[in-house]
């Protein structure tokens, strides 16, 4: 009798963060949920509604993997283990690594009250280049109740800049906004709820990508 052992990548999550997602040019507000690991922010999963009965799970491992897959809403909410087959796994090149030289995190610390409402921002180093390239700024206001949680970094640029600088405080944001180069707020995440969870995503290690 032969036994086959397949290697797997295991991604653990201990928090479920629910946010209101607001686009300023739209009257429609949606809800996004983020599965996170408070001790490892190299990956996360975002859950959004596809229909009344179906949810879309978008998983990101900033080190090179994307997953987009649909699940029954009730089954996904109650599942402790989520198994992903190779058909839904995509690989990407870490192009954002080449952009970090143009950006910086600004940690306002004790100067926050005097200078800005944000705890920290991610912005272009060169304002003239930002205007020419139409680059915007991310601003973050932290939730004071969970200070040990590593920052939730949604875009690849946020993650790669974090690896480069590591000068921003721990904690989840209660407000994250994107302001365009003209100074107009285009999108905001506003925290609704924080929950402790125990969930795992399993992805085969031998996917041919």
Give the topology string: H per helix, E per strand.
EEEEEHEEEHEHEHEE
Straight-line N-to-C gap? 31 Å
Q: Helix count?
A: 4
Number of strands: 12
Strand content: over 45%
Query: Which sheet architecture does the biggest sheet show?
Result: 12 strands, mixed
Q: Domains counted in the coordinates: how many?
A: 2
The portion of residues assigned to helices is 10-25%
Radius of gyration: 18 Å
Pick out the low-confidence regions: 1-5
Secondary structural class: mainly beta
Query: What would the principal axes of the Cα set say about the shape?
Result: globular
- Mean pLDDT across all residues, rounded? 91
General description of the model:
The chain has 209 residues and is mainly beta. The protein has two domains: 8-93 and 192-204, no CATH class; 96-186, no CATH class. The protein is built from four helices and twelve strands. Strands 1, 2, 3, 4, 5, 6, 7, 8, 9, 10, 11 and 12 form a twelve-stranded mixed sheet that branches. It is globular and about 45 Å long. The two termini are 31 Å apart. The model is unreliable at 1-5 (pLDDT under 50).
Helix and strand topology:
Elements lengths: L7 E16 L5 E9 L2 E10 L4 E8 L3 E8 H6 L2 E3 L5 E3 L11 E5 L4 H4 L4 E5 L2 H7 L3 E6 L13 H10 L7 E7 L5 E20 L5
Features:
209 residues, mainly beta, 2 domains, twelve-stranded mixed β-sheet, 4 helices, 13% helix, globular, disordered N terminus
Quick overview:
A hairpin with a 5-residue loop joins strand 11 and strand 12.
């Amino acid at each position: 009798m032969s036994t086959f052992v397949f290697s797997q990548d295991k991604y653990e999550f201990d928090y479920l963060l629910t946010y209101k997602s607001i686009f300023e040019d739209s009257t429609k507000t949606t809800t996004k949920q983020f599965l996170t690991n408070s001790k490892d922010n190299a990956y996360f999963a975002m859950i959004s509604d596809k229909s009344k009965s179906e949810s879309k799970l978008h998983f990101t491992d900033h080190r090179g993997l994307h997953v987009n897959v649909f699940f029954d809403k009730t089954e996904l909410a109650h599942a402790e283990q989520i198994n992903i087959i190779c058909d839904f796994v995509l690989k990407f090149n870490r192009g954002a690594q080449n952009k970090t030289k143009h950006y910086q995190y600004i940690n306002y610390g004790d100067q926050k009250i005097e200078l800005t409402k944000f705890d920290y921002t991610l912005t272009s180093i060169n304002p003239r280049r930002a205007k020419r390239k139409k680059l915007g700024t991310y601003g973050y206001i932290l939730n004071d109740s969970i200070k040990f949680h590593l920052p939730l970094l949604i875009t690849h640029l946020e993650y790669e800049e974090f690896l480069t600088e590591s000068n921003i405080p721990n904690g989840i944001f209660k407000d994250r906004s994107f302001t365009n180069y003209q100074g107009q707020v285009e999108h905001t995440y506003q925290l609704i709820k924080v929950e402790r969870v125990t969930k795992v995503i399993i992805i085969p290690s031998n996917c041919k990508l």
